[in-house]
Structure formats: structure tokens, C-alpha cells
Design brief:
It contains ten helices and six strands, in the order ααβαβαβαααααβββα. The chain is of the alpha/beta class. The chain has a six-stranded mixed β-sheet. A hairpin with a 4-residue loop joins β5 and β6.
């Protein structure tokens, strides 16, 4: 898209804004009170609001390379992601945290490559947050495993690792243990639009749509 196309897109959005002006201006007047914190990848193919058809004000979204969550280290590192987590949990009081990875993730694929480009110095450091998922995938399948199978497993194991990381934040851990904050791990398939969620009781990823089917049976 060029600048003119973006301008045309904004024109279309203003039509939407006009039709929904009452609810949108209420968010201006009352402030935001999102239901969930969504931590997703910066990948342009991942579109949080469209994926779940959420409305403006529903999701507080943090996006970064690989949907990684840096562990709690206030005296060592300064992260925009950490700041966003603290704000969402402490100030906005979200009740849900969704950590959403996706298939064909460039960050996870890069874990298996040597990065020598000096212009990617921050990226190389950031990708260290995915190394434990890579190691676990190799231990599970072997280093000579089919590459695509290895990457798909790495993507899912990384989601679980990021859940572990976010629980190192004292306020997150406290609210989670008190039962007023839920944490979910999702894997979005960019080839089908389907989402799987991590079931901590069975240690497996299951179709998100199965939750709807379970509610219908009840």
C-alpha cells in the first residue's frame, strides 16, 4: 500500500467511526476497560481484532517479534513488553491474558539460523527468549527431525514458555493465584484461520472451537 491507499483506508474507517460514534466516544469519555491483554506477534498476518471479532476497547494489545515475554528482571532490563503487562494487569485490571503464537513464525524459524548481520543486534538478543523452546523441541524430536515438524513444535513450546515467563511477574502471579486472572496460550494457524488453545490439564493444544461445542452440550 502507498500513502494514498492508506488515506483511502482511513476514509472508509471514518465511515465506520461515524456509524459507531456513540460507543466509540463513550470509550473517550469513560476511558478504556479492556477485557483481556493480548500478547501477539508483530507479524503482519496476525490480526488480533479480526481473529476474534472483538470490538474497540475489548483488547489491550502488545505485539513484538515472536510474541515473547521477557521474564521479570526490573534491575537488569527495560522492556516495553514488561511495561505493557504491568499496566494491563495493575492499572486496567484485565481478567484474561492471551499469549498468542502462530504457525510459520519467522522468529521461531530464526532460532535455527545464524544471525551475523550487525544491523540485527537487538533482534539477535531478543531471540534468546526463544532458545529454551528450541532446545525442548530438539530434545523431543531430535535434531534430524523434519524441519517443518520441528518448527511447528517450537512454536507451540514457545507459547508455553512465555506463559511460564509471565508468571514471574509478581502482580500477575498474585492475581493468577487469587483466581481473578486467567492466562491462556493460543496458537493461530495463518494458513487456515483456526486457533488452538493450550490445555494445561492434558498438556495438549486443542481446537478453540471445541470450547463452543462444550458450552452447547451443557
Amino acid at each position: 500500500m502507498n500513502l494514498q491507499e492508506y488515506a483511502q483506508g482511513n476514509k472508509l474507517f471514518r465511515s465506520y467511526f461515524k456509524k459507531n460514534q456513540e460507543s466509540l466516544l463513550e470509550l473517550v469519555k469513560s476511558g478504556q476497560s479492556p477485557k483481556a491483554l493480548f500478547i501477539g506477534c508483530s507479524d503482519s498476518r496476525v490480526i488480533p481484532d479480526m481473529m476474534v471479532q472483538s470490538a474497540p476497547g475489548d483488547l489491550f494489545v502488545i505485539r513484538n517479534v515472536g510474541n515473547f515475554v521477557p521474564p521479570y528482571k526490573p534491575d537488569e532490563d527495560f522492556h516495553a513488553t514488561a511495561s505493557g503487562i504491568e499496566y494491563a494487569v495493575s492499572v486496567l485490571k484485565v481478567q484474561e491474558i492471551i499469549i498468542c503464537g502462530h504457525t510459520h513464525c519467522g522468529a521461531c524459524a530464526s532460532l535455527y539460523e545464524e544471525i551475523e548481520d550487525p544491523s540485527l543486534v537487538h533482534t539477535k538478543k531478543w531471540l534468546e527468549l526463544g532458545q529454551s523452546a528450541k532446545k525442548s523441541a530438539i530434545l523431543s524430536l531430535g535434531s534430524d527431525a523434519n524441519r517443518e515438524e520441528l518448527l511447528r513444535l517450537t512454536e507451540k513450546l514457545s507459547i508455553i514458555k512465555q506463559i511460564e515467563n509471565i508468571l514471574t511477574y509478581p502482580i500477575v502471579k498474585k492475581r493468577f493465584e487469587n483466581g481473578d486472572l486467567s492466562i491462556h496460550g493460543w496458537c493461530y494457524d495463518i494458513a487456515t484461520g483456526k486457533i488452538e488453545y493450550y490445555n494445561a490439564d492434558t498438556y495438549e493444544f486443542l481446537p478453540l472451537k471445541s470450547l463452543i461445542q462444550s458450552e452447547l452440550k451443557i
